């Protein structure tokens, strides 16, 4: 195993801090909240899978029983899509999205907020 030198570690930390000051280094993340047995969730699964393959944006899929308490107020219907940038919600869409192009538009809202 190759260990990094102290200077390399400091440079990496400095780069992270600089990127955060410039608007964040974290790319937008789309979180999909879904319910097992939900017809709309099943209908939108194909578009979600295609979007995950095509898009460089980070994605996260959370089943209804695993929703964190801090997000439970946001999720009132399934499926729910939330775009998060630097830990903050910037966009939300509820209901089935059956076209990956619509998911790309939703992701673009997160990219626009970053700038």
From TrEMBL:
Domain Thioredoxin: 26-105
InterPro entries: Thioredoxin-like_sf, Thioredoxin_CS, Thioredoxin_domain
Pfam family of the protein (one): Thioredoxin
Region of interest: Disordered: 1-27
Signal peptide segment: none
Ranges of Basic residues composition bias in the record: 1-21
Gene3D superfamilies in the cross-refs: Glutaredoxin
Protein name, UniProt field: Thioredoxin domain-containing protein
Organism name: viral metagenome
